[in-house]
Write a structure and sequence with these properties.
Blueprint: H1 2-8, H2 25-35, H3 39-49, H4 55-71, H5 75-88, H6 92-101
Helix pairs in contact: 2-3, 3-4, 4-5, 4-6, 5-6
InterPro entries: DUF6340 (IPR045921)
């Protein structure tokens, strides 16, 4: 009975996503917000950080925004942020996200 019920009813599938964090209050605060499922608030911070003159910080902030978009189901926007991240710097994480998103 239990097997049949689980086959017929919707089930949650757990997935993990990596986020980049650097030293600094903004990075830490945004990461905590994401962990608390406050993705929109976290993404606001990462969008500001994506404008950094430091290409590494900019790329990873954009990657984090892309992950947030993916988690929230906005795949089109996730693809755009992934492309922006890769334009700033080619990172292993963004390349993996690009593949997962089918870019």
């Amino acid at each position: 009975g239990e097997t049949l019920a689980s086959a017929l009813s919707p089930q949650w599938k757990g997935e993990n996503r990596l986020l980049a964090v650097f030293s600094g209050n903004a990075w830490t605060k945004a990461c905590r917000m994401a962990q608390d499922f406050k993705w929109e608030d976290a993404m606001e911070i990462w969008m500001r950080l994506a404008g950094s003159a430091n290409p590494k910080h900019s790329a990873y902030a954009a990657y984090n925004v892309a992950v947030g978009c993916e988690v929230l189901g906005n795949i089109g926007l996730a693809k755009k942020w992934t492309e922006y991240s890769l334009a700033r710097m080619q990172t292993r994480e963004a390349l993996a996200l690009k593949e997962r998103l089918g870019l």
